From TrEMBL:
This is Glucoamylase. One of its GO terms (biological process) is carbohydrate metabolic process. Gene3D superfamilies: 1.50.10.10, 2.70.98.10. Residues 309-609 form the GH15-like domain. Coiled coil: none annotated. GO terms for molecular function: carbohydrate binding; hydrolase activity, hydrolyzing O-glycosyl compounds. Residues 52-294 form the Glucodextranase N-terminal domain.
Amino acid sequence: MDGRHPPSDKDAICSAPDENGGYVLSTVNQYPSHAAGEDWHGAVVEDTSAFRADVEQFGDFHTLLWDADREQTLDVRNDAVESDVTYESPRVPEVHVENEFEFADGTAATLRQDLLVSADEPALLLRNRAEFGAAGERTLFSVLNSSITAAEEADDGDEAHVATVAGDDGEYECLVSHDGERYFAVGLYRPETGQRVFDGRRIGRLGETEGDDKSAWHDIYGENDGYIDSNEELSGHVDLGFGLHVGDADEATWLTAVGFGRTEDDALDAVATALDSGYEAERDAFADAWEAWHEGVADGPTDDETVNAMYERSLTSMKCAQDPCGAMIAGAFEPNDQGYRFVWPRDQVFLVSALLAGDAVDEARTALEWLDDKQITDDVSDDRDIPREGTWWQNYRTDGKPHWTALQLDQVGGPVYAHWLLWQHTGDDVLDAHYEMSRAAAEFLLEYDNGNGFPGKSQDPWEEVWGHSTEGSAAAIAGLRAMAEMAEARGDDAFAEDCRERAAVWADCFDDYCFREDAYLGDHYVTADSPDRDDEVAPDHRPDAAAFMATWPWNVVAADSDEMRSTVELATDGAWCASETACVGRYPEDDFTPTGEPEDGGWPLCEAAADVVRWLDGDEDALREYVFEDAPSWTTAAGLLSEQITGDGGVYWNANLQWSQAMYVLLTETHVREEAVAMAPE
């Protein structure tokens, strides 16, 4: 490896609940990772964003231990023999990271790191404590990859240089990187000695192994000599490295702060403020802010400590993932060079429903306001020449710039349903505030009939198939029904009747398009009718877990109907379900995996939908087993849920997924209330 950032999952994420710190989202990953495929066993601070949750300021933040007596440099990710990642609590997402090392001669070392985001400043603060099992001369290094422009189409890299900033008791030496609009600065402080300057610092170019531009990673880890060839500045795809010489101390504690700003001075001031405050003061403020936020939302609603912790951790996770502008990214992980740091309107709809279930009403309001603001209001058409006014693009960056643009009907009916949910929950002026948004979406749906009494074609929720999507069509029906209730409340009776009648026609035709007899596993709902592609198993021939959402939350197919019963009964078939744990996948022969081949495993969010169907049809144990037994066993080291798990229930890929966290909250509330929470109107 040359220090470049590999694809990765995330075991923990961290942000602050208030606006300033809320602009920063940091992540920690424990290896090994199915995404990276390397034989690593360490845990490392990774992708960290600021001011826009979809724009990472830096990638991996490595800490390395150089031992001069043993002539060896060990890195937290590549060389740790074991590691651990935990949260302080479900309500306070301070992250504790521990890496254990063994030098070639058997000497042991431990690095413990505590990570938080400043409650009052856009800054990340790390407390580092290194302990060594034998005497030696040592230098502790840090390397981080600047990635501010990595998400831009014209990625020319960043500019970085050395700077200083005044603190309360002296100047801090810092490294600054920027793209002219976004800045981050990094500095250190060793309380025991008062040291505020680096013992060597380097700005290098990623991938370079020689010459004036060699990377900081290669200088420190590759050359393995305990020294840094210092320089002042460099531009391009750069990494930043610096050292802290601790001599023959058998333990050392130091702080590292990364400050963010829209100007260099702001970033430098954030570093100085965090380091001057010290870790304990920053931690107290961080914990107080999070506890205050949790006081305003629901507590874990059961009498089970594990379930309550997972419920509260899910709310914490969703709050961390919400940019102060209201956008909620799907996840902070990167399965490949195309990460999930985007906003899918459908995902945001499920997050809104979960936030409302957990009494996080302010966050739900802000999320719906963002959807309202990003609705397409222009007379524009997409690549298929479909007029898109009143709809939403497939996904967005947090600033509202479209990323992918395909039409998905759950991302048209879904926001209308979310508006209806918020109105039902609050009973205030929400109806009027977003009425024009919902009406425009419903007008699109009314026009998007295929001429034979069913919604036109769209992309399925898995973003793979163009056809008459089972789940998308159900969401369109739900959207029209929700609109009918809101239009009626507004006195818009004729429009309400139009929506209700069209929804009824579509619902009557639903099984004709979406259900198949004698299909791949028997009689079941399928991914889509008239698909535009053939997979290993054709999308109009295979069962699909997204169909369970036609029952909940879209409320189009009754759980006790023969068609839904026959479908959910097949969800335990080995061709569709994980082999050793009760978790159904998206569909049989699904090859969206790290290897690109079908693998044994499942999707927790799919199993959640299936279990609500079972529960609605009288299986009293279905929800209890998911909430109390299954989902808690499918989590990352820090207790978060992923997109995919292995056949035996281990976290496999794409952690953590906010949609999975939302489903856990919704199922827990459904279990406790003994009614299907967030069910769309009939």
